[in-house]
């Protein structure tokens, strides 16, 4: 017969055996090259609150694995990272681990970075941080080398660009985070200018507004842009003298909608219009015109990002299907120019060559060396034949424009992990 003392000892022993069977401890050391890399340790999804941060070398660290999900994590994910290097993540379980782990980090060549982008949604006219890919290298893989004109600092983004009619000055929108008078962070964009040869940047507009998408008017004497200067959450079209000898004027303002992305040629302005319903719900983007033979504001087609041809007869734009289209300034004879698959957000920001024979645009048709779709600069004949890729860097290339003499193509890129203005020789020289 078992006495009470023996029974008590057996119960204690059984408890110890059961408790000990709930976890398994592994002693693991982790080193890295280079050293002093950050270690971020997280557990499996059933233990979301578990996280720990260390630094290499981490010597003889105890990892406790639960034998059942109720008694601890069944695996750990260890992210090893260091500025300037690509991070690596290790997954360890109680049966799949190494007691001594040595990791060599590769120099960072590609990174997910954030940039401010213009967003027009049910929230209104805003700037929001978006994540995009960028490569540290600034070379082109298969085409002519690109030259840097402007390199911006951290957390600065370019939202639209145009070139003066004499080809000497670039005007662009610079978006950034600032603090208002209450110390609260907000996003603003102001117009800036710089010589095509580089050098110092001159500020054109001031204030805590969102001045975006600059474009020279048909005379070259004024700069059109869209802004929330009159309505905090909505966009209207304004102008400012190119030589800044005068104030800002209103070009297009409507209480029932938003107006933005203006382009001007031969006395006509085309722009994107988005109706507002009940102050919060928006209709479909539309291409409108002002001036020309029809002096009244005229709706032409559903679409956005319109650009007038140099002779003022044709508009290229982005259709509702995110493809490249063109129409007559009368809104007739629509022609679809591209029909390739949409990988991200479709075609963007088309512009004409000065001779009217080509259309240059940003497209997500291309892929980087890791087979990931990204935006590059493309060119297509004005009749929609023979499209080809002009930039091949794995970073995001956007906002192309061709110089009046048709010698160079300028564009915005985040290659090198920062936004900047670059140029390459234009492949179709004017004769």
How are the SSEs ordered, and which strands pair?
Blueprint: H1 4-20, E1 23-33, E2 38-43, E3 51-55, E4 58-66, E5 75-81, E6 88-93, E7 100-104, E8 110-121, E9 124-135, E10 147-151, E11 157-163, E12 169-179, E13 185-195, E14 202-203, E15 212-216, E16 222-227, E17 236-241, E18 249-252, E19 257-265, E20 268-277, E21 281-282, E22 286-291, E23 298-302, E24 304-308, E25 314-318, E26 324-328, E27 335-336, E28 348-352, E29 358-363, E30 376-381, E31 388-389, E32 397-402, E33 408-413, E34 420-425
Parallel strand pairs: 1-7
Antiparallel strand pairs: 1-4, 2-3, 2-5, 5-6, 8-9, 10-34, 11-12, 12-13, 13-14, 15-16, 16-17, 17-18, 19-20, 20-21, 20-22, 22-23, 24-25, 25-26, 26-27, 28-29, 29-30, 30-31, 32-33, 33-34
Give the name of the CATH architecture of the largest domain: 6 Propeller
Low-pLDDT sequence parts: 6-20
Overall pLDDT confidence: 90
- Our Rg estimate from Cα atoms comes to 29 Å
How many DSSP-defined strands?
Answer: 34
């Amino acid at each position: 017969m078992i006495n009470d003392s023996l029974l008590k000892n057996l119960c204690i022993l059984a408890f110890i055996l059961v408790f000990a069977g709930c976890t398994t401890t592994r002693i693991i050391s982790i080193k890295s090259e280079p050293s002093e890399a950050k270690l971020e340790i997280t557990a499996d999804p059933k233990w979301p609150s578990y996280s720990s941060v260390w630094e290499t070398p981490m010597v003889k660290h105890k990892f406790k694995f639960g034998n059942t999900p109720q008694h601890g994590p069944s695996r750990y994910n260890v992210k090893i990272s260091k500025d300037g290097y690509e991070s690596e993540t290790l997954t360890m379980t109680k049966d799949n681990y190494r007691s001594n782990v040595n990791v060599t980090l590769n120099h960072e060549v590609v990174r997910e970075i954030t940039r401010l982008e213009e967003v027009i949604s049910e929230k209104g006219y805003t700037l929001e941080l978006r994540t995009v890919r960028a490569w540290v290298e600034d070379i082109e893989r298969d085409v002519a080398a690109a030259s840097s004109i402007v390199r911006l600092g951290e957390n600065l983004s370019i939202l639209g660009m145009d070139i003066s009619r004499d080809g000497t000055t670039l005007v662009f929108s610079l978006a950034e985070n600032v603090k208002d008078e209450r110390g609260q962070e907000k996003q603003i964009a102001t117009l800036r200018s710089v010589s095509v040869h580089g050098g110092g940047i001159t500020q054109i507009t001031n204030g805590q507004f969102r001045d975006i998408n600059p474009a020279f008017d048909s005379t070259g004497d004024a700069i059109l842009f869209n802004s929330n200067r009159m309505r905090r959450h909505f966009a209207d079209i304004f102008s400012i003298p190119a030589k800044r000898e005068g104030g800002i004027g209103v070009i297009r303002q409507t209480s029932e909608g938003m107006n933005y992305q203006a382009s001007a040629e031969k006395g006509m302005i085309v722009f994107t219009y988005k109706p507002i319903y009940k102050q919060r719900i928006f209709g479909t983007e539309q291409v409108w015109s002002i001036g020309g033979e029809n002096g009244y504001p005229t709706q032409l087609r559903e679409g956005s990002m319109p650009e007038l041809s140099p002779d003022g007869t044709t508009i290229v734009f982005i259709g509702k299907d995110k493809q490249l289209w063109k129409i007559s300034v009368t809104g007739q004879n629509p022609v679809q120019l591209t029909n390739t698959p949409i990988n991200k957000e479709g075609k963007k920001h088309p512009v004409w060559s000065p001779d009217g024979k080509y259309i240059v645009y940003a497209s997500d048709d291309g892929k980087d060396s890791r087979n990931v779709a990204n935006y590059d600069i493309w060119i297509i004949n004005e009749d929609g034949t023979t499209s080809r890729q002009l930039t091949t860097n794995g970073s995001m290339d956007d906002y192309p424009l061709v110089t009046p003499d048709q010698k160079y193509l300028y564009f915005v890129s985040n290659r090198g992990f920062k936004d900047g203005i670059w140029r390459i020789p234009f492949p179709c020289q004017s004769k």
